[in-house]
């Protein structure tokens, strides 16, 4: 099986990324892997689609650091017809390209569709990813699992919403990731509200969410695969992201730390509520950020933290993900195009 990982850039990859764990797990299971970046697709006059695949130059790496060193220093580039790719794993973060390379932000979904038309399995399903380019996608899920939310560019609307929330609000851009430009606002009378508004609204629309008191302990990142909690040997792929002292953000990229967590029936119920839509949309691998009985975000592009979870519990969840892809490739071989990509992605 050949898996092509679509990422923002090679130099932006890191040893602690979930993509790295998945790539190493695939190699350990005997599969060929390559990376593709936004400038790596070629659609020719004969309607054939190729990828300029970046291929690590050595065999199975000793560890993640060695793999990333190889990826940056000892790679070769090979043009491959996309029909020779079994799985296109779309693992880019559109928000990272939105400002400086807007042309690149939606390339994965666009060319992912073309790859699917040529028989490639693309996960997560590119049609659904095209609809999930920002946090508005979250508003399509049941209200019972969403915090009270306002989306607007009007400071007057946001002030009024803050006044309606006794515990304050969390303000963040509609498009963004990694905890960038996330602020907790206690009162509409805060002296720096105008400055915060200017900083965040420069990126477009804003989301104001009613603050959840349990957030002081951080949130819980739970991985779902094929619409259900990712699990192996009785352990769930979940951990608590604990914010640094004085921080409202619990993102690992914002100095948050990882801690073990017990997955409760309440958490599983939250996951079950979102399952039907994730399955219908062909969302193969997803990260839920949960506080209490509410979900703050659903990460469908680059859910991270799998390495943290594997270290905490000593469980190889990455291999479980690759094994699931193997089954999809086998199913595609048996059924051909009779199953849509969206169905196959979560089967």
From TrEMBL:
Question: Could you tell me which residue ranges the ATP-grasp domain spans?
Answer: 135-326
Keyword flag Manganese: yes
Q: Which HAMAP family match?
A: GSH_S
**Record InterPro entries:** ATP-grasp, ATP_grasp_subdomain_1, Glut_synth_pro, GSHS_ATP-bd, GSHS_N, PreATP-grasp_dom_sf
Q: Does the keyword ATP-binding apply?
A: yes
The pathway noted for it is:
Sulfur metabolism; glutathione biosynthesis; glutathione from L-cysteine and L-glutamate: step 2/2
Q: Which cofactor does it need?
A: Mn(2+); Mg(2+)
Keywords, A to Z? ATP-binding, Glutathione biosynthesis, Ligase, Magnesium, Manganese, Metal-binding, Nucleotide-binding, Plasmid
What species is this protein from?
Answer: Rhizobium gallicum bv. gallicum R602sp
Which protein family is it in? Belongs to the prokaryotic GSH synthase family.
Q: What is its EC number?
A: 6.3.2.3
Catalyses: gamma-L-glutamyl-L-cysteine + glycine + ATP = glutathione + ADP + phosphate + H(+)
Signal sequence segment: none
Record's GO cellular component, any one? cytoplasm
The protein's enzyme class: ligase
Which is a Pfam family this sequence falls into? GSH-S_N
- Name of protein: Glutathione synthetase
Record GO terms (molecular function): ATP binding; glutathione synthase activity; metal ion binding
């Amino acid at each position: 099986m050949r898996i092509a990982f679509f990422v923002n850039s090679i130099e932006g990859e890191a040893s602690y990324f979930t993509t790295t764990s998945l790539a190493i797990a695939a190699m350990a299971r005997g599969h060929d892997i390559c990376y593709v970046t936004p400038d790596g697709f070629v659609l020719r006059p004969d309607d054939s689609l190729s990828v300029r695949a970046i291929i690590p130059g050595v065999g199975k790496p000793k560890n993640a650091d060695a793999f990333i060193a190889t990826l940056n220093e000892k790679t070769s580039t090979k043009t491959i017809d996309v029909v020779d790719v079994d799985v296109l794993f779309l693992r880019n973060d559109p928000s990272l390209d939105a400002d400086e390379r807007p042309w690149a932000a939606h390339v994965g979904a666009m060319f992912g569709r073309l790859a699917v038309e040529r028989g490639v399995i693309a996960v997560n399903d590119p049609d659904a990813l095209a609809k999930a380019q920002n946090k508005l996608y979250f508003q399509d899920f049941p209200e019972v699992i969403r915090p009270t939310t306002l989306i607007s560019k009007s400071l007057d609307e946001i002030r009024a919403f803050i006044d309606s929330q006794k515990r304050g609000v969390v303000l963040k851009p509609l498009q963004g990731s990694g905890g960038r430009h996330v602020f907790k606002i206690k009162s509409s009378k805060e002296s720096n509200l105008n400055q915060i508004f200017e900083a965040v609204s420069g990126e477009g629309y804003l989301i104001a969410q009613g603050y959840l008191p349990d957030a002081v302990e951080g949130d819980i990142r739970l991985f779902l695969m094929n619409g259900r909690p990712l699990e192996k040997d009785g352990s769930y792929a979940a951990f608590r992201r604990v914010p640094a002292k004085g921080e409202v953000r619990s993102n690992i990229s914002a100095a948050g730390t990882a801690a073990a967590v017990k997955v409760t029936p309440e958490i599983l119920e939250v996951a079950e509520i979102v399952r039907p839509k994730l399955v219908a949309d062909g969302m193969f691998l997803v990260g839920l950020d949960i506080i209490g009985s509410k979900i703050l975000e659903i990460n469908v592009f680059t859910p991270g933290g799998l390495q943290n979870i594997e270290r905490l519990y000593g469980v190889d969840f990455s291999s479980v993900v690759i094994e699931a892809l193997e089954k999809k490739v086998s199913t595609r071989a048996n059924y051909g195009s009779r199953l849509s990509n969206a169905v196959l992605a979560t089967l």
